[in-house]
User: Fold this.
Amino acid sequence: MANQTKKNDPHKNKPRRKLPDFMRQRSFRYGSTATAFTVIFIVAVILVNVLVTSLSSRFPLSVDMTANHKNQLSTQSVSFVKKINQDINIDILADESTYSNAQNYNSCLLIMQQYAQHNSHIHISFVNLDKNPTYASKYPKETLSQADIIVSCGSIYKHIVSSDLLTTSTDSTTGSSTVTGNNTEQVIDSAIAYVTAKTLPTVLVTSGHNETDSSALTSLLQKNNYQIETKNLATDGLDQNAKMILINAPTADFSADDIAKLDTFLNNGGKYGKTVFLIFDPQQASAPNLESFAKKWGISVGTGVVYDTTNRYQDSPFSVLEGQTNSTYVGTLQSGLHAYLSVCRPLTLSSSDSSITTASIVATESTSKLWNPGTINSSTAASFQASNSDKTGPFDVFGVATKTATSGSESVKSNVLVLGSTNFFNSQVLAQPSLTNSTILLNTVGNVIGFNPGITVEAKDLTTQSLTITAGQAIGIIVVFAFLIPLAVLIAGLVNWIRRRHQ
Assistant:
């Protein structure tokens, strides 16, 4: 009975469903596994990419493989940025794509983004002026344009014109300009130093004596956080809070009263701490009072022009390259770069005053000589002929005299800088990334007046060099990449297909 009343299991003896033939094939099983691994791999790559993209906006994860690291902050800038403990905003007045898609400016953007990556106090924002028309109202004194930059800290700000991020050179024949360097790092460093500085030094530029135009030099100083004022010594009172007076190759001599004002400025009521920067030029008219002032400080300005037929820049013998620089004043210069000493008067450094010491800042090589035809201008220079009787160098062309005294219990000093060339700081020279003139000027002035405007970084060279190959090399490249490599890939594919076919 028990066996009769026992219910039959409905699933017992039920035949198993057979898998379709194609699913039982080994190729399907292997293919399914490969597909699963492929899907997992793709998902993993996507997740890693999202993670890295997110982290790279906050941390410096990229590696610059360019020869001169043109897209990377220098170690000097990184060290400077990491010390910032105030909130800094860098507003880029453009969409991010405007910079990233623009030739040359894309490297500017890469550098600016690294400031935020190295310090959480620094914030990068993109502002489209068309979409945010009220933004400009916050800066009524500025004329803002698309792609300009505003660096701010609280209520203090610095407006950077986009063209200042790049250095250019102009062809004197065609008038066309070519981008030669990326100056973003120096410009942003300077702006950050400006908005975080407690005090900024003032430089007085003299007028009223037919001084040579010094706009290139004053522009360089302004970009590095110096305040510039123009003063006529005869009619304007001197700002005793100023740190330096700049006198650029006047064609009319200074009066005895003007010289007395320079003495008063340097003495500063016995507190010293001042500097006068005198610039002379071989084509300059005689200025006996101003030259006597320099000589009183131990620096005699010679006549004639220094030339060098060996150690020179380009083809002109008057475009001399430096022989020696004084690291105490100019700092450590980038290896392989030179100072351009075009059309220089020689200096003689010697002081009879025990309280005054002199030092050479820049001098020429021993291969240099002195040409002194009397009057020097473009006409006489055209008839230049080197002579064995010409005086042989080296010659000092940039020097400093320092007077030391005691004020109370402290040692104080004032300085007189003398430079023998106005071409040392012409705009094209200062914009040339392969020359160190701008670094020499900024470091020297900063050292003598005791002002560190941040750091000085050379513009990153953006010039390109063509790769020249012979016809034979070109044919070899075509054969390898157009024939041999595709043929090797084809053969490898055929071998792999045949092996799988016979498995």
